[in-house]
Amino acid sequence: MTTARVQEALRKNSLDGWLFFDHHRRDPLAYRILRIPDQIQPTRRWYYFIPTSGEPSKLVHRIENGALDSLPGEKRSYVSWSDQQQKLHQMLFGSSRIAMQYSPNCAIPYVSMVDAGTLELVRKSGVEVVSSANLVQLFEACWTEEQYAQHVEAGKRVDTVRREAFAFVGSRLWANKDVTEYEVQQFIRGRFAELGLITDHGPIVAINANASDPHYEPSQERTSHIQVGDSVLIDLWAKLDAPNAVYYDVTWTGFCGKSIPDQIQNVFQIVCDARKAASDFVIKMMRSGQEIAGYEVDDVCRDHIQEKGFGHYFFHRTGHSIGTEVHGTGANMDNLESHDDRRIIPGSCFSIEPGIYMPEFGIRSEVNVFVGNGFAAVTGEEQQNLVLI
């Protein structure tokens, strides 16, 4: 983050400034975007304002006078609550429209970090507060060339482990040996470690009705035995064990047997076609230079499933932003859980992962899509057929 980059973004968004605020590290976005050192642990409120032009300004409590010393700009300190309010108003004088980590109606909870009381206080200065959601994307969701390369390499390794995991299930089944969801999960975690991959939790290994819970994870205490005739969903995500590495996140589904039941095959095909319709839409729009928002991608995907009569069984967003955390802070492909109207911007990556979750079984198919300047592409392997285990 540099002041010049922020000010350029502010001008493009017709804003007079970006006001950062925090208390007790409630807003992790502010600390990451401003690159405030980890050792700074404030117990008093601070404000940092970057105007569209000119030098930034900072307001800190006198007993934590050095809280923002890593940042450029003029520093003022306050002691009393009245002193704080007066100097905050002075800081914002002359501005009319500013951004904060706020989302109207909490539509995008990932950026809704500022409490209602602070918004009331800021608005008393006579400014209009708008969401910083699109600004946050620029400094949180855009990858470097190195991060993209790390993502591609992680994808190669994760896809290898995914193939091995299905083969592991098959080898145990056809040797008439017992195998559980938890054992497969631990097999994947072990291979991740051997291949230099790390993950925050997971993966998901789920059979039959368990796969109808999109966030099901097996454990030693809760696991099912995998048998011939079962459908198997594996959702796995990981990144390279390297600084600032980004995730790769995919879901594939298989069937244990030689003949796939018609209902499972039909649902699988609908899910795959919906996924492909969404990724093709993104690719087409980026190639033509047209801007699109996350909710529009969700609409394309969801409309296909609804037209096939399964809309009731698709009850999560189409996809999420991907970054150094598996659920990143960029635009989500969502017009269900929220109306995500953030633009999909070059340098960002996200998942497309429709699912149909029937009472007896669940099917999900997931790919990652990277958007560059004038193009978009799926970054890894795309499932076309159910894995026959």
What can you tell me about this protein's structure?
With 389 residues, the chain is of the alpha/beta class. The protein has 2 domains: 3-140, Creatine Amidinohydrolase, Chain A, domain 1 (3-Layer(aba) Sandwich); 145-388, Creatinase/methionine aminopeptidase superfamily (Creatine Amidinohydrolase, Alpha-Beta Complex), CATH 3.90.230. The chain has 9 helices and 16 strands. A 6-stranded mixed beta sheet has the order 4-3-2-1-5-6. Strands 7, 8, 9, 10 and 16 form a 5-stranded mixed beta sheet that branches. It has a 3-stranded antiparallel beta sheet with strand order 11-14-15, with helices on one face. Strand 12 and strand 13 (362-364) form a beta hairpin. The chain starts with a helix and ends with a strand.
How many individual domains? 2
Distance between the termini: 48 Å
Point out poorly predicted stretches: none
Gyration radius over CA: 24 Å
Morphology call: elongated
Q: Write out the CATH superfamily name of the largest domain.
A: Creatinase/methionine aminopeptidase superfamily
Q: Order of helices and strands, N to C? A: HEHEEEHEHEHHHEEEEHHEEEEEE
* CATH architecture field of the largest domain: Alpha-Beta Complex
**In the CATH scheme, what's the topology name of the largest domain?**
Creatine Amidinohydrolase
Largest sheet: 6 strands, mixed
Number of strands: 16
Which class of the largest domain in CATH terms?
Answer: Alpha Beta
Report strand %: 15-25%
Structural class: alpha/beta
Strand order of the largest sheet: 4-3-2-1-5-6
